[in-house]
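cache lookup: miss for this entity combination. No prior model stored, computing from scratch. Input as submitted by user K.M.:
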Amino acid sequence: MRGLRKAYGNRLVVDGLDLDVPAGEIVGLIGANGAGKTTTVECIQGLRKPDAGMLRVLGYDPVTQAEELRPLIGSQLQDSALPDRLRVAEAVELFGTARARQARDGGELLERFGLAERRRSAFGSLSGGERQRLFLVLALLNRPRLVILDELTQGLDPAARRNVWAAVRQLHDEGTTVLLVTHEMDEAEALCGRVVVMRAGRVLDAGAPADLVDRHAGTATIRFSMPDPPAPLLDQVRRLDGVHEVERAGARVTVRGARPVIAHVGAALVRWGPVPADLSVHVPSLEDALLGLLDDTRPAGPSAVIREQEEDQEELTGGRR
Amino acid sequence: MNTAVGRLIKAELKLMTRDPLVLTFVFAFPIVTMLIIGGAFGTRPNSGFDFVNPAHWYVASYLTVVIAATGLVMLPVHLASYRERGVLRRFAAAGFPRWSFGIAQLTVGLITTAVACALLLAVAAPVYGIPALHDAWRVGLALALGAVGFVSLGVLLGTLLPSARSAQAVGLLLFFPSFLLGAGGPPPHVMGAAIRHIASPLPLTLLTNAVRGPWLGLGPATGSLLGLAGLTVVFTAVAARRAVL
């Protein structure tokens, strides 16, 4: 995708977006509400026509070749439903392709996602989690080459979420490309080899989750309390490699610094005496990185990170329009 | 039946049989009202009913009520609900061919109409009797044109109206005046000239005239048939464009 633009009336939703999704990878699309993520994936599926830009998916142009492209994509759309009175087994029959060679066994998928007992239940009677799992079953039925999952685990309980994550990993192992739109940072961290952060229709940054954390939330925070914290200990901590800041508020001490500081401060405390009972460590996560990025008021720059990566990646997308 | 269109038709037909609005409006309402009004004016031919049995006059009119209920109420609500809830987007994303949904709706609308008409005649037969067909070909042609036209109009309304509630409101607003003025309401001779004037160009009036005239031997109703054909072409052409996934 190069320079994709899409506006609804006067509201520009996607603003010159560049995006590469390498074949066989799980790529996460994250960002605040209104960042343009859903519109972007709708353009990828040919459900919306971009105003400008180049887009190729599996070698097809989603605007002019939607009929050829859509059967190759398995999609779990946000905010879409099935008819309330359609039963689970009927939905599987309806969405299963006629090409038996390609189709997966719907019954097996229903079993795998815990819906076998609900085969005769109407869609309207399913819980939110059951609906999400059914959408996943329907998305996987025809062995798609690209799977697009938009807010995949919304409404799922923790056990069901792990089950769905395992299914996504299995897809990855089978060589399927996955584009995951999510607000769940732990989900993106757990599943995605690469994450693209969007704001206001543009890419803010992209990279492996760990790299994004390093770039935008590299600071670890260590907290502990000591009655009247001794000045020599605080001086010693201040001099440790990678410590950015030592803050004292009464008995409470907060140390901020690069992640190795966690080990150094721990060692210093052990050397000093009894380890404080309330010692706690906050390791930066992708969520911290996202918040750091979104808080950043700098305008969204060109997708430099993506360009660097392009050279190394076998692109899923083909030529330009 | 294992093509995308076949699977859609099969699923949609099942859903129709589970929809209380369809069962009430398309199947029950025309039969109940036909039984009531068909018996209201007796069975003796008189001038107000062009010298035919009033009960037969209504039996020959009520097939078009079924067609209008399908096109003005059932389909708009059904389709608007699909659009409102993102069902059409899901069909599109799943790779259903662009025309499959429109073809499925047309087929399901026609099948529903045919079954409901057959049921209406089956109920009318032992109660009032079914009048002899004077010109079966013209009646068949008018019914076919009317069914395609109203089903297309229903698809069109369903793709234009923003929600199921608005489709229901607009559908009922279009259906009841059409029904009362042009098909199953009071006979034209009790209506004033102004009301008759308003009623005459309505699509349902054209359809009812085009069916009832040749059925009861009251005349070929060629003008109504041509008007109906024109409307059907327009509705079908616009609906076909709107129903593409």
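stored under new cache key. Chain B has one domain: 4-242.
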